[in-house]
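Quick start: read one record
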Amino acid sequence: MIVGLIIRNFKIFRNLHYIPLAIDNGGSWLIGENGVGKSSVLQAIDTFINSNDINRLDINNEARSQGFETREPFIVPIYIIDKKKIKPNVLIANILEAISDVSWQVETDDFNGYQKPFAERFVKHRQELEACYSSATHYLIPLGFIKEKANDTPIPYMSFFESINDYEERINTIILESSSAVKKMDFNTAINSVIHFIRETYNFIYLPAEISVDKYSRIESDLLQAMLGEDLEKKIGKFITTGNITNINTQLNAYLEEVSSHLGKKYYFKKPSKRQNTFTQRHLISKIVESYFIDKILHRIDSGNKETPVQNLSSGEKRKALLDLSLGFLKQNIKKNNIFTILAMDEPELSLHASSCLRQFQKIKKISGMGVQTLCTTHWYGYLPVASDGMAVYISPTQSHIKLLKLDNYRDELKTLASESKGSYIDVLEIKSNHDLVQSIVASITSKNNYNWIICEGKTDKIYLESHLEFEEIDNLIVLPVGGSVTLKKIYNLLIHALEDRQETITGKVFCLLDTDAKLSRFDAKDTIKKVILRRILSCENEGCIKLVNTTDDRVSPETEIEDGLHSEYYINTFLRLLEEGDVRFEFIKDAQKNDIDSSFLALDLTTSQKKVISDFFEKPGNKYLFAKYYSSFVFDDEYINTPSWMEDIANFFKS
């Protein structure tokens, strides 16, 4: 996985920049105005991993005009590599370990004054990475190349890390302690061998904003190879062994020497500097895939059974097809190791109708969830407030502020960004993200687009609702968590304003669902549009049930969350499962008096202290999600689904 990028004087980027890209494998979205360098980030990584002619480095125009001295352009990606997932030779493994060991330990004070601001950003980023990764399990590798002079071939480079002598000392020690053949290497040669290993290991598939027919064919071939490469290696390996490959290389080298001998001393064949002069099994697989699929053209079949070559579709439709292709192969190879495939895409929403944007982004999220790292640029921010994981990388207009935002905590991250930037950027991000999302919802429920939406507060609400309502046969249902009541109310208001003068065009429905909070702020929703309504759940102890009440209802207590309105049987079984897995806090559940009531909030007769054990459990981060996943498994395993009555009321809203 590529977690960061250090870049200088490449394309739009002027001077040195440290760009954090990821903390986990949830996918990353580069956001910001036109011209800030979002696409340049993807192009820089593509140049480093895939470029066949790295001499053609796209240098920043201002830096080019001023000359190369002290302004040399470079690209240095930062990798997190799972040690168990790769099989380098002993030398490469030792070099990776040496680089990684120093990278995990280096501190800001180890760098000189000019480098310290960038080193500080790296160290801060590394601290966040340590929540998911460690030096014991993962390599941390900052490694790329630099172009020192206009006509020079780029050479291996580590950016400001090169000022740390430990890197070179550790690698030189490895060389000295190795075989005589390895002792001929120097530091740069050793680093170059690691770069070659990284390029051989990673598949970086880049989908630019505009895709020509020729470029589409190449991307489709690369995508197929990336998704099928591991399986093809196993299949081809049965017929073409490593010995065969070695023999082919030997025979070809001998043939080349024989040809050279007939040319006298006037001509000879010379391989490009620092390039491998033999081909590998991976090269052979690439040619097999390319040759096999060269005359097999992917077609799209529309609702009228009309077939259209995908290469003839619009740029937006081409990208939709490539995402569908990726998902199709990934679903067939769900156990396949995809951690070394990176899918990068410029503006997935380009050329798509607003109603299709959210689904396009959800496809990318599914691909990310299957082990493929995704890096995308976007101007459609409707996805940001509803994403439950992943990152957004905000690049300010002057590139002076580059901020990594955790999307599972999007609102708080915006507040932090506002504080750091003195309020410069929050309005644009927050307002645009809400408006883009509402635009997508409006487009999906009007003009004969009959989608149905449940907009809820949190991601656990989505799990519970989907687990029960999946069996209610509601057409085109999307359950969308938006990260809290404040955002939900904003979205509801925007929907009402957008639809109040076009009610006759509404063909879908929207149900907005709130909790009853301890400090409930009054919100006036009067059902002015019958197909777009807002309700909150409320525990009614006298009636022994959960009800959906209007936000204007005077009853504002007790505090009610969705966990209070679950079905009692699945609710109790979930606590018993936690007990079976060793959480002894819930020993009392086995002996508690069970009430003949469907709603979870009155399912058991519990003491005050026992109720506190449960409330404390739900207060701890991550436990609500764990409980929801266990609960939903009981729902799916039950032959007859017991759906709470208030959820049935929601289903009836869509069916009526």
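The longest strand covers residues 74-82.
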